[in-house]
Design brief:
The protein is mainly β. The protein is built from no helices and ten strands.
């Protein structure tokens, strides 16, 4: 199916619009071990802090890499790595960002 994300600036109490992000999938070697990352898609969060319909359509290890330098000098980049076991299900990975803290969870 697909993947979506939502970035909220909890320090400002509002959605984080204009955050650039990359969706990457792990590259496996012949031995099945991770060998690196492949860029799958790039997006920018909309006025509501959302980026949807990202093409995470296979099982495996994925990551979202957020360019958060404009929001936090302490966290200029945030990487969230996760595993998709059921590629037919929708996955939602929100990021809650403050100047000196962050959190994420599997949303719905």
């Amino acid at each position: 199916m697909s993947l979506s994300t939502h970035v909220l600036d909890t320090g400002a109490g509002q959605p984080a619009a204009g955050v650039a992000l990359r969706l990457e999938k792990t590259i496996l070697g012949f031995d099945g071990q991770p060998r690196g990352w492949k860029l799958v898609a790039e997006a920018v969060t909309d006025a509501d802090g959302r980026a949807g319909a990202l093409p995470a359509d296979t099982a495996g290890r994925w990551r979202l890499v957020f360019d958060t330098a404009a929001r936090s000098s302490f966290f200029p980049e945030v990487t969230i790595t996760f595993v998709i076991d059921d590629p037919t299900a929708h996955h939602h990975v929100p990021l809650l960002l403050a100047p000196y803290g962050l959190s994420s969870y599997r949303g719905s």
